[in-house]
Amino acid sequence: MPANIRPISQELAKVAKEELNEVPERIQKDLEALREWIRKQPHLRARTDDQFLIAFLRGCKWSLERAKEKIEDFYTLRGRMPEIVKERDPLNEKTRELIRCGVALPLPATETPGSPRIMLIRPGAYNPEKFTFTEVMKVGNMVSDFVMLNDDNTMIAGQIDILDLGNVTAGHFLQMNPGLVRKITLLTQKGLPMRQLETHCINTPPGFETLFNMFKGFVSEKQRNRIHVHGSNIEQLYRYIPKRLFPDEYGGEAGKIEEIIDSWEQKLTSYADWFREDEDLYGAIAQEELNEVPERIEKDLQVLKDWLAKQPHLHSRTEDQFLVAFLRNFRYSLEKAKEMIDSYYSVRTAIPEMRKDRDPLSEKNREIVQTGYSLYLPKCAPGGPRIFLNRVSAFDPNKYSIYELMKVASMINDIAIMEDDNAVISGHIDIMDLKDLTMAHYSVFTPTVLKKLIMIAQQATPLHQKEIHYLHLPATMNTLFNVFKKYLTEKNGVKIYVHNNLESLQAAISSEFLPAEYGGQGGTIAEIAANWEKKLLEKREWFLDDEKYGTDEKKRRGPPRTAETICKMAKVRELSPELAKLAKEELNEVPERIEKDLEALKEWIQKQPHLRARTDDQFLVGFLRGCKWSLERTKEKIDSYYTARTVVHEVMSPRDPLLEKNLTVLRLGYLVPLPRTESPNSPRVVLIRYGCYDPDEYSIVDVIRLSVMIADLMHLEDDNRMCAGEMVLVDMENTTMKHLFQVTPMLMKKFAMLTHEAAPIRQKGFHFFNTASGFEVAFGTFRNFMKEKVRERWQVHGGGAEAIAKVVPRHILPKEYGGDAGSVKDILAEWEKKLIANRDYLIDENNYGVDEDKRANGTAKETKEMPNIRAISPELAKLAREELNEVPERIDADLEALREWIRKQPHLHARTDDQFLVTFFRGCKWSLERTKQKLDTFYTVRSALPELISHRDPLERRTLEVIRMGFVVPLPMTEKPDGPRIMLFRPGVYNPTLYTIHEMIKVSLMVNDILLCRDDNRTIAGQVGIVDLAGATMAHLGQANVVLMKKFSMITQDASPLRQKGFHFVNPPSGFATIYNLAKGMFNEKMQQRFRVHSDKESLFQFIPKRMLPTEYGGDAGPIQKIIDSVEKDLTEARDFFREEDAYGTNERKRIGRPKNAETLFGVEGSFRKLAVD
């Protein structure tokens, strides 16, 4: 059949042939190819009429592949923007009124029969107090759709936009927020098949230039080059477009605007049925959104049933209606449906309190239903999602447990799964009403309960959660709300809304569907609850029968699934507030990261062929805390821990606490952990009584073995020891030479390895008392096997109880030492009980260790040279150790590990000299994993910004001119030897008509790169920026568009190893606030809190001493010109360095995984995705 498309004029046919590659003989074949492709896309239900499809072929210059992508984008983007493309009724009174405003008007005449269409856009034509910008864009979208189907000039020759900003007020601009502009830009650039040739802005208001520079960052560079701003000079516009083509009001001959509006009102209203039909196209959700193919349902259900029959651990329902709910929830992905069915029953089996007594006749169950705590509402939009109302305070927390409530909610959910097509197909919208919530309610929602609730909803319910609306969120619930949010997946996290009142809720959910108590027409809560009680009673037999279904984890192929493994909850004991604070501040512990880091450790352990290690959470978290939450150091420590235990095997067996020898040694009291600590967050104090045993009857190995057994239990149970560390008091009373002679040099070395290198404990000190004759010799020998840091913590006091009391307070000491913490005998009796109670654990420890024959990379480690880095001052060394976790003894090993990683990255070409790499370690607080990420980001971002990074020759004339301006001036003085470097930025020093902000930033980065390798204060203590805006004009500020600010924030924040300590802005010009607020938003919250604007220099001096500033600012740092001369000298001497820099970067074609480029890092699409999360 011939293609059913409109004939076009000779002139347009010529354009179509020459510019769009249109070949009339190929049209029918290509249209059929497009239709065939559409038919094979299960997720896509698109129009397939010829005139619609040919618009995409022409818009994509007859490239079939690009046309397919454009059709996909057309429908995908519209699906993301229902507020613009849904409910487009031109007969609606408000819509018709907007049409008559004439905001978007395609003008009737073109310059020639083959010329582009001119679109006149008049945003000032509507009243922003009456209409929203979203409503305006909806009408504009209707006009675009009509043009796409009916205007050959637009679809072949393209479109020229005239943006008339006359009568635009602040009210209009306030509606045009950046997020909405991003959406509109994305929809018009990616979602429409029109060729946008030019945009001309006329009648621009004062200040438009600055705003324009902000927003043009959202469009592609190609489009930016096609934008022309004429201000109020409309005659300038006529040089591009003939005056006669404009309406009479613009001095043209195209007729009055009102006449053009009348014509377009008639056209759009005539298409009312088309718009309605277009929306109905998206109504069959089960088929279009869920990929449901009726002919395939029976086959897919049979596949599921066959699979269920083969699962020995799984006893599941197999009714068709039950199983189809799982298929629909996962868009007919069989594999995901299988996973969900397994999770559905695994969770219910793992949380038996939810499955127990699900009898609808149970008095308590009926009472809970009658409270109306959890109810699906009876009314919803045809084909729309079901609304689930959860009235959190409707129950008595003293009468009902949270699990009883969850059980009844799960019963209601089960009925929805079986009977409610709206909930199964369209999903559900949750309303969480928190009104009248009390502390008694609050207390039942522990983090564990909340996580179980979330995981049940997400992993064990085949109903798609669309949105969550929180109503009446009290201030006291903010903490709980934040805990709740952190457990949500990212997908659900973007769908959370908070309403302070019913009016806000009704704006989001129609009152037609809400209960009467919420101002709706959906019946009363009591009526809805009574109806649900009736439904549950009708299903009583179903619920009683349902109890037989579940999982038998003993029969599962693979590891059994428990509540913890399903919910991925770390089985880690909760710390006291004092220890939690210490863990956060000293150990870098982030509670939200615990599960993820534990999972990473477990995955690493599984991949080590030589290593047999415990993987229970409490055990592993002890290593993370002992290594200040550095994953790489933790891996090394676990390896060393088991390696040492395998090597020092004599102290690892026998470990049965019931053996007579072990019991006897324990009762002698060689090692006595004291039960009290000085404060809630103080280290654990351990007493070692060296002379308590008879060296003729027992060996030092016997007592060490028992000590290791005690230490193993402390590792699992003692949070003070694992977080705050351990202090050891060594009482040498009754120690003889026989005791000392048992400690051979080899044994001392093994013991040092076992207690220092292999133990995840922070040793806070070893204090020796009652020392005997000859002790100094043995002590000196033993110290030689320790690192200097540890040696400094070993002290000999010589005296007895009085000397001990000077080190630790008496109240934590046993009564034998003048304290009141009980007797040594009582303490040991408690430990005897603990050891016997944990007998199986202690014996089982012998099953773990290392098999060196299976170690992947061999065991020998080459001796490395000392790292080639600059020595730092004592003050900076102290700061690096305390704030950045720098351990000098570890630097060499960490640098080699980082270089080894770099060598294995095919896409990354990076510097590997020691001083450069150590800068990144310091910037990442010596975390190897974060350093790898930072280094990758450093080069990725720079490779994506060649305009700022490449060809940086300090002797090139223009670059040298910028250097000599002193745009960026590193000040020579710091407040103290370990103070941060102060950087002075002076944007007002350059002429914006002769130079660009790009050139300033380029030189700034050159200065930055030199200081990275040379300035220890900057890399260790951080950097403080002073931005002096004296002389800065709107022309300067106007150069700072959104994309540039985003690039700058990324290159200075995400891709920089520097610690930014603050930015101080002085001498701000008029209009600075707008740019400042926009720029500030590009940085993370932590950085935003460090931004300060000062009205005068005296305000600045409260933060930065005046003496540190240049002479011109009243300081003692010397003239600015002298500092600039020094910077110029440094940069020119580093010319070879900058030439070498061009050789470093990333080759994204070689990256394992998804490539990263300028578009993904800074582009419009990326900005839009971020908007969706916001």
From TrEMBL:
GO CC terms, sorted: membrane
Name of the protein in question: Putative phosphatidylinositol transfer protein sec14
Gene3D superfamilies hit by this protein: Alpha-tocopherol transfer (1.20.5.1200), CRAL-TRIO lipid binding domain (3.40.525.10), N-terminal domain of phosphatidylinositol transfer protein sec14p (1.10.8.20)
Gene Ontology molecular function terms on file: phosphatidylinositol bisphosphate binding
SMART domains in alphabetical order: CRAL_TRIO_N, SEC14
Organism: Lutzomyia longipalpis
Top-level taxon: Eukaryota
Coiled-coil segments: none
Chain ranges of the CRAL-TRIO domain: 162-258, 364-526, 655-825, 956-1121
SUPFAM superfamilies noted in UniProt: CRAL/TRIO domain, CRAL/TRIO N-terminal domain
